[in-house]
Write a structure and sequence with these properties.
mainly beta; 4-stranded antiparallel β-sheet
Length: 205
């Protein structure tokens, strides 16, 4: 049994004939094959090793978050991606959440699972308005409840639930029919707020 070993480029003398050859390198699939050594004085054998692919599953608490690896889009969470071992720059983005960035190290194992948590970048505002304070539904835009945050309408279609408000101090103004009320509030990201609107008229003697 003839046995030779070394590192490429590897030069050695061998008699003509058929031989089994194996070439391996870290991060690449191992090559196993047979070569025919002829009677020529010199013979060169070129072997191309294929990069080792690792199945990496990336998920997050926000379904459909956009995945970027080395600033290239690679689908949405949850997603299984085949990668070569190495270090990658990972970025996850989702509307209403702060972008998540990290260094992703992929090792030469059979399968790797990663689960990341994105933090909300907005506060959620719900309005609690007594029905008798609302106009009856109509076709006019004046019939809608309008919510303003720092002079910007945040419910163009008249919604009163799940309104997204940037964190910080803001002036909130609510218009319902001919009634307009404004006040200042402080919002924290990821917190759900219920803004209760109560109006009453009392006559005293």
């Amino acid at each position: 049994m003839l046995f030779r070993s070394g590192r490429t480029p590897f030069t050695f003398k061998i008699a003509p004939g058929y031989y089994t050859i194996r070439v391996s390198a870290k991060g690449y699939t191992t090559f196993n094959g047979r070569i025919n050594v002829s009677k020529n004085r010199y013979q060169t054998v070129n072997i191309t090793l294929q990069p080792l692919m690792v199945y990496v599953n990336i998920s997050s608490n926000v379904k459909g978050a956009r995945i970027y690896l080395n600033n290239r889009p690679r689908g949405k969470t949850p997603s299984g991606i085949r990668l070569t071992p190495g270090t990658y720059s990972l970025r996850l983005e989702a509307d209403g959440y702060t972008a998540y960035q990290a260094r992703l190290r992929v090792t030469a194992s059979s399968r790797q699972n990663y689960n990341f948590r994105l933090q909300p970048s907005f506060a959620t505002l719900n309005l609690v308005i007594p029905p008798n304070y609302l106009n009856k539904p109509g076709k006019s835009r004046k019939d809608l409840v309008r919510v303003w945050v720092d002079d910007k309408v945040i419910n163009s279609k008249g919604a009163v639930y799940n309104l997204q408000v940037p964190p910080g101090n803001h002036t909130v103004r609510i218009e319902a029919g001919a009634v307009s009320i404004a006040n200042q509030f402080t919002f924290k990201p990821g917190v759900v707020y219920n803004l209760e609107l109560f109006m009453e008229i009392r006559l005293k003697r």
